[in-house]
Amino acid sequence: MTYAKTPDGTRIAYQLQGEGAPLVLLAGQANNHHWWDPVRADFHPARSTLTLDYRGTGDSDKPDTPHSTELFAQDVIAVLDELGIDRADIYGTSMGGRVAQQLAAHHPHRVSALVLGCTSPGGPHSVERGNDVRQALVQPQPGAARQALLELMYTPRWLAGHPGPHHTLGDPGMPAHSRRHHLTASNRHNAWDLLPGISAPTLVVHGTGDLLNPTANAPLLADRIPGARLHLIPEARHAYFEEFRTHASPLVLDFLTTVAHKP
Fold first, then answer.
1. Is residue 90 a contact partner of residue 103, using CB atoms and an 8 Å limit?
2. What is the CA angle 32-152-93, rounded to 5?
3. pTM of the predicted structure, to 2 decimals
4. At 18, phi and psi to the nearest 5?
5. Residue 13 in 3-state DSSP?
6. Are 118 and 88 in contact (CB under 8 A)?
7. Roughly what angle, to the nearest 10 degrees, separates helices 69-83 and 176-187?
8. How far apart are CA 176 and CA 171, in angstroms?
9. β-pairing, 88-93 with 111-117?
10. How far are the Cα atoms of 43, 53, 100, 106, 107 from residue 96, in angstroms, in the given order?
């Protein structure tokens, strides 16, 4: 296992695969690097991929101290420093997209290009999920909340042919305090005032069927970040990057190779 140590002494586990310019892949809330297992090889023809286990997940340390998306971004910087990577492309989905916003805003010299997937700016300007979705995710019946989350992630058609395992439902090894810290970090994210200062070429991707992080957040981000491009994937739900990988992965690679890094 390979680790980077943050300024506060936390060990962050990371995973580097493939060859070529690095693409950092950032997972959703309360998830470890396995979030990306089904699709990371899609990028290896053109990029190496770098993932990490957020503090509180996977093989990283799990301190019982406050977390924030800005702190998660600093942890990413610690990993880049450990590897001697000066600049990288960043692709963040869900809470990982919120971390990516912090990276691009606070560490612009470290971010070559930015892809924000199924995410939001947070704060009062964002569009919150409906109360019906919130209630579905806290059902007391065994398995009911998990099934609700599955159906928010994937379409029924895809689930019928893919019984699992599913890597987007949370890290089962997380302690309760880490889950609370992740939830708080994501809920308190508010990058609205930072977004106009993002200078990296940016692509915003979202599924039109996403109710977990409502699709209306995508144009908010694209309009707020100078020069950002917006791409909506019809019918896709929150885990668009997996179910619609044959659409999403080439879209991201094309953006990185022909738009973000054009001469």
1. yes
2. 40
3. 0.97
4. 80, -175
5. strand
6. no
7. 100
8. 11
9. parallel
10. 18, 11, 6, 15, 16
Token representation of residue 120:
């939001």
Pull the structure tokens for residue 111.
Answer: 């971010």
**Number of residues in the chain:** 263
Q: Would you say 56 and 181 are in contact if contact means Cβ atoms under 8 Å apart?
A: yes
Per the structure block, which two tokens stand in for 83? 């590897």
Inter-CA distances, 190 with 113, 132, 231, 248, Å: 21, 23, 22, 26
Do 108 and 114 touch, CB atoms closer than 8 A?
no
First to last CA, the chain: 38
Q: What is the pLDDT of residues 134-186, one digit of tens each?
A: 999 999 887 999 999 999 999 999 999 999 899 999 999 999 999 999 999 99
Q: What is the pLDDT of residues 200-230, one digit of tens each?
A: 999 999 999 999 999 999 999 999 999 999 9
C-alpha span between 238 and 143 (Å, rounded): 19
Are residues 97 and 245 in contact, defined by beta-carbon separation less than 8 angstroms? Answer: no
Helix (H) or strand (E) segment spanning residue 102:
helix 95-106
Residue 51's φ and ψ, nearest 5 degrees, are -120, 170
Q: Measure the CA dihedral 11/107/80/187, to 10°.
A: 40
User: Tokens standing for 210?
Assistant: 């996403």
Phi-psi region of 132 (alpha: psi -120 to 50; beta: other; left: phi over 0): alpha
Q: And the tokens for 66? A: 């406050």
